[in-house]
Design goal:
- By secondary structure, the chain is α+β, with helices and mostly antiparallel strands.
- Helices cover about 15% and strands about 30% of the residues.
- The protein has four helices and 27 strands.
- Strands 15, 16, 17, 18 and 19 form a five-stranded antiparallel sheet that branches. The chain has a four-stranded antiparallel sheet with strand order 1-2-3-4, with no helix packed on it.
- A hairpin with a 2-residue loop joins strand 2 and strand 3.
- Helix 1 packs antiparallel against helix 4.
- The chain is globular and about 50 Å long.
- The N and C termini lie close together (about 10 Å).
């Protein structure tokens, strides 16, 4: 009779726990990919995406929690990773891009709910603003590029003027938070929160396309384009969850460009923008990009998505995926934005999957010792 070994039991119990990678640019515009095939990679700058460097370092997060999101602090040249460690869910990990080192920052969550939130990292203040359970929270990061011994704390700032079932889609530009897909706000418009005055503008702002049409009122993914001179972002990309198009909103001109839709239709993809590229990370680990030049409409309209080939060579995408590539379901949003309408469900599914695998392990252990 077959007696399961400890190795096989461990495999059965852990096989259902899935990794949660993320991508980000550092302040020198090197594309960083974390936890692709279990390793971290520096793909270099956009003009040299021909080779990769393994930057996997000690003290890195396990990237084993649902919906890991990564944010660039441009002043500190640091990447902040939230939801990267299932055993330390409230902690935040900091990657010092210059030193190529990781550290874990203790954070007091208070009433902040890590299973259901949307967040941006403000460029000038280096403060996180997040919508969770109907309240706007803030987390001041100072200029940390490494963890300190004093825990940080989420502060519950105020209740937002949105219904309890609103799933936040948050974009950052000009130190303003732009809330998309808000109930009763017209297509192509956003509600605005002015960060420096802690003030919700009473009227939404329209961002029409040149032909007068508008981006849809729907849940989607967002990513803000950085400026090479380290000033505030002026544009953000919005990709509907069905991957039907890529919209770039300019808050200086109050206009929108409609660009090529992602080649891979994956509602669980995440996105991160640098200065001249919008990057997509799909749920099977494929990294693609759309080249972008601010102010060059004709070039942007003609641009197409392409694979970041050096990352594909270093960390080949998996042949199967935990998500559908049809765009029929929704999960993780942007590296700069939110948990999606099914985040709570997906987190519950992950927990249930782990519980079920542990149950199977216990049954097999009992069977092994009985026989």
């Amino acid at each position: 009779m077959f007696l399961p070994t400890l190795v096989s039991l461990f495999f059965i119990s852990s096989a259902t726990v899935r990794a949660s990678p993320c991508v980000a640019f550092d302040a020198n515009w090197n594309l960083l990919a974390f936890n692709l095939n279990g390793k971290d990679w520096n793909a270099g700058t956009q003009d040299t995406w021909s080779s990769t460097t393994d930057i996997t370092a000690s003290n890195r997060p396990p990237f084993d929690a649902a919906n890991t999101t990564c944010y660039l602090s441009q002043y500190a040249n640091a990447i902040y990773a939230i939801n990267a460690d299932s055993k330390n869910p409230s902690s935040l990990y900091i990657y010092n891009a210059a030193a190529k080192s990781w550290s874990m920052q203790a954070v007091n969550a208070g009433s902040f709910d890590y299973t259901s939130f949307g967040a941006i990292l403000d460029h000038d203040t280096n403060v996180f603003y997040a919508l969770s359970q109907g309240n706007l929270f803030s987390l001041d990061m100072g200029l940390l590029n490494a963890a300190n011994s004093t825990p940080l704390s989420w502060t519950n700032d105020e209740q937002v003027p949105y219904p309890s079932n609103y799933v936040p889609v948050m974009a950052l530009a000009q130190n303003h938070i732009h809330f998309l897909d808000v109930p009763n706000v017209p297509a192509g418009s956003a509600d605005i929160f002015v960060i420096h005055y802690s003030y919700f503008q009473p009227q939404s702002q329209a961002y029409p396309l040149p032909d007068g049409s508008a981006f849809p009122t729907t849940y989607g993914h967002v990513a803000s384009f950085f400026q090479a001179d380290n000033t505030v972002q002026q544009e953000f990309a919005f990709i509907p969850a069905d991957s039907s198009a890529t919209y770039v909103v300019n808050v200086e001109t109050n206009t929108t460009q409609a660009l090529a839709a992602p080649t891979t239709k994956d509602s669980k993809a995440t996105y991160f923008a640098g200065v001249t590229a919008l990057v997509q990370l799909t749920s099977n680990g494929t990294v693609s990009y759309l080249p972008y030049l601010e102010g060059n409409t004709s070039t942007n309209i003609a641009a197409t998505w392409a694979t970041v080939s050096n990352l594909a060579a270093a960390a080949p995408p998996s042949s199967s995926s935990s998500s559908s590539s049809s765009g029929s379901s929704s999960n993780t949003s942007s590296s700069h934005s939110t948990t999606s309408p099914s985040t709570t469900a997906s987190g519950a599914a992950l927990g249930a999957s782990v519980q079920y695998s542990v149950f199977i392990t216990c049954v097999l252990c009992f069977a092994a010792f009985v026989v």
